[in-house]
Amino acid sequence: MSKAITLETLLSEFARGVRNFRGVNLAGSVFPLVQLSHIDLAGANLQGINWSGADLIKANLANANLRGANLIGADLSGANLTDADLQEAMLSGAILVGAYLSRANLQRAVLSGAILKGAVLHDSNLKETNVVGADLSEADLTGAIARRQDLEEAKLSGATLPNGEVVFDEGDIEEVPLPTTPAIAEPMATANETTVIEWTNEQVIQMLILQQEPLPSTYQSADLKVVALGNHCYQLRTITETVVAVVEGSSVADEKVTLFVEAPFADLMASVLQAHSFWPTQYISDPVPAWQYEQVPTPPSSEVRLGTARQLWKTWWLLLKSTATGQEPAQLQLLVGKSWQPIRDIGFSPSASGGVIIKTDAGDRHYPADASLIWLESVQSGSPTPTAPLWNGLLKFQNNCLTIQTAAGPVCVRGENLTVTIGGQAIDLNQL
After folding, report:
1. For residue 51, which of 100, 99, 115, 94 has the smallest C-alpha distance?
2. Are 69 and 86 in contact (CB under 8 A)?
3. Which residue in 25, 141, 201, 298 could disulfide with 2, CB within 3.0 to 4.6 Å?
4. Among the listed residues 209, 193, 210, 203, the one whose alpha carbon sits nearest the alpha carbon of residue 224
């Protein structure tokens, strides 16, 4: 029989370092974003809980009753869910990387958009389970109850199917070459015995994206160089002719930078771009993975954040909890195209595809839980300017005389052990 315990008691004990809560009864508890990593809830009754977005990393949930639980967006990386009952549980967008789900009952559970990379699902029950958009790559489903056609709605690269067959996805290992160099391209700099290579890689990238004009004979570093393609179009290449990025535009304001994410020095290029308020506005998958960057001015007193849709939801939820009831945290703005849109609400999608719904003034936007997003957070300016005391200009204490300004003129009060109060607040004479 499970042991009854309140969630408040559990959280209090957990804060003191207790981790063993085997067999407790927390059915129906509601605590989104609860932080319970490494907790031991083996055999616990957690039926119908709402722990959406919870941190349950490496939690022990073996034999736990999680029927109908709301674990949307929860992080269960490395968790032990062996023999757990997860019938009809909501796990959209949940992270189950490396989790153990042997013999787990996931019948009619929703795993849409969940990440189960490398998870172990030996002999698990996946009958009527929604795995649309789930990432089951490298997962082991040996002996699982599941139909092949249902599993094909998920990503299965490297996964071991119930019959022991390993899925081999040629698309995952196919090497796609970077765009070939046009024959008409003429380098702005040609390395020869007279070239002075004095620029750093960062300087070459900065001069390119800000369209500065140094001497052509020095417009390269030891690793990178710029090639003019004509019509306000340039390529950034390595000295060995590998294309890193393409820059198009006659001015910085209308400039578009296509950065090939798998190219050498791509991380450095991204860092310099972001330092000058260039942010990725569009992802390009064909012919090779690339991000298109454009300059987007950042409002004052704001900081740009990059993360997943799930991380943005956590940030939103924490801000929502810290604001007064009935108010919305207006500190967050989502980058949509080249504009910042105030976020009005964020929630997890109940649809089969999972993910999050972000409401903005430009309409509702749906994203997978692990989609890369960019948003603004308002930054509190320094310490607030201290307000003038209520008695400023009204009271003054000097040479043992307390001066009080009145409509009839100043009044001087002298005496021993004088005390002054305003509105019930005692005033230290030394402050006057």
Report:
1. 94
2. yes
3. 25
4. 203
Q: Amino acid identity of 344? A: R
**Residues 132, 134, 137, 143, CA torsion sign:** negative
Query: Mean of the per-residue pLDDT values for the chain?
Result: 80
E strands present in 43-116: none
Between the alpha carbon of residue 399 and those of residues 26, 206, 394, the distances in Å are 69, 64, 17
Query: pTM above the 0.70 mark?
Result: no
Phi and psi dihedrals of 105, rounded to 5?
A: -95, 105
**Amino acid making up residue 428:** D
Q: Which residues contact 276 (CB under 8 A, 6 or more apart)?
A: 206, 209, 210, 295
Band of residue 58 on the pLDDT scale cut at 50, 70, 90 = very high
In 3D space, the residue among 186, 187, 222, 192 whose CA is nearest the CA of residue 204 turns out to be 222
- In angstroms, what is the C-alpha Rg of the chain? 31
Which single residue is written with the structure tokens 């919305």? 328
Is the CB of residue 332 less than 8 Å from the CB of residue 69? no
Measure CA 63 to chain center.
32
Taking 80 as the threshold, does the pLDDT of residue 340 lie above it? Answer: yes
> How many Å apart are CA 178 and CA 174, to the nearest integer?
13
* Tokens coding 232: 């306000």
**Of the candidates 236, 242, 247, the residue with the CA atom closest to the CA atom of residue 180:** 242
Q: What pLDDT score does 179 carry?
A: 42
